[in-house]
Structures
1.
Amino acid sequence: MAGAGLSLVRHPDIRYLFFGEEPAIEEQIARHPRLSEKCEIVHTDVAVAMDQRPSQALRKGRWKSSMWLAIEAVKEGRADAVVSAGNTGALMAMSKFCLKTLPEIERPAIAAIWPTVSAECVVLDVGANVGADAGQLIDFAVMGAAMSRALCELERPSVGLLNIGVEEVKGLEEIRKAGAALRTCDPPFRYHGFVEGDDVGQGLVDVVVTEGFTGNIALKTAEGTAKQIGAYLRAAMNRSMFARIGAFLAQGAFRALKDKMDPRQLNGGVFLGLNGIVIKSHGGTDATGFASAVDLGYDMARSGLVARMSDDVARFHDALDLDSVA
Amino acid sequence: MAGAGLSLVRHPDIRYLFFGEEPAIEEQIARHPRLSEKCEIVHTDVAVAMDQRPSQALRKGRWKSSMWLAIEAVKEGRADAVVSAGNTGALMAMSKFCLKTLPEIERPAIAAIWPTVSAECVVLDVGANVGADAGQLIDFAVMGAAMSRALCELERPSVGLLNIGVEEVKGLEEIRKAGAALRTCDPPFRYHGFVEGDDVGQGLVDVVVTEGFTGNIALKTAEGTAKQIGAYLRAAMNRSMFARIGAFLAQGAFRALKDKMDPRQLNGGVFLGLNGIVIKSHGGTDATGFASAVDLGYDMARSGLVARMSDDVARFHDALDLDSVA
């Protein structure tokens, strides 16, 4: 609620639909008076548990759960985006079932916004599915480029395929095949070639494409490394009197650094490839983090992401002949 | 050469065999007089190029190249370990061909030492092969545990399988299968369960097991993130006069932090599963980095790594019945 309140300050034209236990929601809204004029509560006492299997969630509580009702609101045009901090697998399964994927897309992907030394990079898939064939990787590239265009207003974002070397002969067969196809066709972005794990944070490309297992591990490894270095830094700044005085004088700089490294600033995985905008917020985040996820949904909706992505995908699918490079 | 000299200071009982162009090596040794008493030069003018395909390197220059001769010296007992900064793929192919794998091991792996908030973690495979089945992952676990034992003197290191969630139902089938097998048998280490990308740097376990594609991308992502945060930190410490004064006062702390984050301190991938010790140093490193790789080879040889690993693998392979959990 506090997060929704923060986002409302930044985007006064937002309107909220809250799905869940009405008394609990009302109690929270009472603490954020501005919110009460801008929202509507849809009561339900069915919730998807965090440990529920996606297939279970789809079968059991489907029609009445807060998650389902929220997604349905997007489908019926009563909402422009759904933001949820709930069970990721269930959210994806319900989104697919309710909103359906774009006609040409077999599998949606989850895209993350990855901070880089120069700006931001869209990385996908970070965990919707394990594994992807060449055609799916190319779909991810088109979807990621559309998101990058919407988010960063880049006309022709650059796209790289994540691999374990930059030479054409390296890595998984699907990646090599996708790379060969992208070289010979005319995609709606600049195809950069293969990129490696250390290129992502350097901002070498605007979009990094990988399958969900590797993408998830890369993302979490980067988060873990940032946390680890934060711990080193705190320890280093406490090791002597000089260091403590230095840290005190440089506290403005440290605050800026902390903001830069703050995972809450870029909270929110975007489900791409669906007929609607679905944002997954980190479960463990606070108001700042949740507000970032809401902002992201707002920006995606504002930019007309789904329509543009749908156009891109349809046009490119007609032009692409993947079998010719098999 | 300077790196070899550094290691010699730390380990005065080291003796070197240098393989390559004799005049060039002699010229370099002349600058490190202490080295000249401790080394022998084996001349060859055949070198494996960095861009040569492993299969090519094996066919063409095999019998005369510096890389092959150095590996052969380990095979023939004239050296205890080989350290090379050359072509990784060729080094692995030649090592397999010349030294052979341990009887029970199908595939060697490359292990990296990953700094954590508490100590160090052995991560493997970081790029010897793409993909691994359940049996190979279990072999990696046994080999990684043996290395951790040799390196950190832990009697029963803890081992985790890298996955995209800690629940038993998540991730790739091979990983789930390996996990199920490790739960039901009695491995020569503590099996922790699944770990995620952000657990590695937190030092949750002593050994992290994954297949080579994911491992390589995780390692490079962590290196890239560390470099990225280093850049943020430098920028932050330059943004105002106070920050600069603070940074000046805290320079001792920053130096300690830099050491901690310095990838040269833990340079060297260890090829595990072979009848001999082979260390791959980063190609782009300097004397400090190369000395770390030499130190690692020294420690591995001193600890009798190969013999102990060979024992562990043989004993555990007899006890393990992977088919029963298939």
2.
Amino acid sequence: MPTEKKFFPLFEKASSNLLETAVLLTKMVNTADAVTRRELLREIERLEHVGDSVTHEIFTELGTTFITPFDREDIHALTSVLDDVVDFIYGSAKRIELYKIQVPESNICKLAELIEKSGEELHKAVLGLRDLKNVESIREACIRINSIENHADDIFENAVARLFENEKDAIEIIKIKEVLSVLETATDKCEDAANVLETIIVKNV
Amino acid sequence: MPTEKKFFPLFEKASSNLLETAVLLTKMVNTADAVTRRELLREIERLEHVGDSVTHEIFTELGTTFITPFDREDIHALTSVLDDVVDFIYGSAKRIELYKIQVPESNICKLAELIEKSGEELHKAVLGLRDLKNVESIREACIRINSIENHADDIFENAVARLFENEKDAIEIIKIKEVLSVLETATDKCEDAANVLETIIVKNV
Amino acid sequence: MPTEKKFFPLFEKASSNLLETAVLLTKMVNTADAVTRRELLREIERLEHVGDSVTHEIFTELGTTFITPFDREDIHALTSVLDDVVDFIYGSAKRIELYKIQVPESNICKLAELIEKSGEELHKAVLGLRDLKNVESIREACIRINSIENHADDIFENAVARLFENEKDAIEIIKIKEVLSVLETATDKCEDAANVLETIIVKNV
């Protein structure tokens, strides 16, 4: 295996770890039982650390490998932003526990599902990096990630508008709005990852 | 026309669309009549879609053109950030309607005006890209955009401080603070665009 | 002195100014006396302007120097993000005064201390740029900055959770949460600076 090929399994480890974290989040926000929910949170935390290790591994590889499959700065950017997505997933899960949010809550569930869908598309796109002959399928995944982000934006904004209409306790509003916002930011970061993937394609086709 | 020249009309379409959106926002936040305001919002939404199309057009052009007038990554960054500005303008307009904010509200109007001024400077700077002989005027536009952003920052912070002093309804504070913050972020994104323009100048002079 | 060497004293001026601002912030948030606190705020504001001048000086140098010690875009990114850190330090100090926050407040003090520690590590790392032979010490500083950011994240999230439990005035929650959030963002920006430093190392070893 040529040394530059070492990066692909690492990228794929990062994106499959991201997807796994997203799947656990969907499970967690649909779990009414507090004990199970805390176990899921601990598992998400564990995967967040796995993500950090992969990130570190890629950066180290980058420092010691002369020939890279893509521009070094794009590898750096892709790795950072995949890490960001996992951070925001973990950040929302943590806040749900810390703020004692009542779950399942319908808009939180919807946003978690969208993050999971984005995670699936991202992982598909990253798998496509090994062989850039099928660029069109990466590009389509990126377009779907963009459209998921638009959808998440709409859900977020409408959820907040409903909150203002129906919830009279300002402190509750602050808490739920914050969780919704962190979830929405996770979809933004997926979009940022898609943009890096598009940059890589633009440069390598 | 050499193929690389195709980019300039597209950049200019993006920045003139941004300016037009900003002009509509200023109109909207000064309109007390709910029906007219909703029409203006729908028009802003339409321009947001126009912006998305131009963004997509530039990215497609980037994927099929061998020689580009500037570094591909800078074209990508400039396009993305001009798109961001329009997204935040639309985001603030949408929230004013969704949260049923009473307009005109003096600080909202002031920030909308600053976004419009930033939009004018951005469009001027983008028009200067065709012929990089007049780099000084681009640089001056960028400096003005930076100073507008500082001004917007001050207005935002003082507006929030006044809100805390005079508004006793926490939910009202959350709503208005959020709108002010999205408006302020639009001026931040204008500054980011100016920074990309400065990077382009630095590399091409 | 070869012209490219001109950049190092400027980088060091930016990072030592950042550190000085952070030291003043720690002092300010530990000062109960309103008059002294306002003097410290004015001094932070002055240093923020000093930071802006250094930023401008580096950008001008970048525009007129042919050979640069690192890639032009990395110099641009490093300069911008060091400027961001100072902006967020000033932003938090300003909000403490504007929102009339009662200080010293234990979590605010803890976050200010972490910013100061990050500032020390950043300044150390920037001093290491002159002679890239000791790359390991720069890398270690970056790792410490990352771990400080994780710590700040935990403090921020727990502080907000405690606020929700103990503070019944929603408006107070909004104010203190905002200050904590700006402080936490300052540590995020330190991490962004560390990431740029890692990029520079990756490219120059």
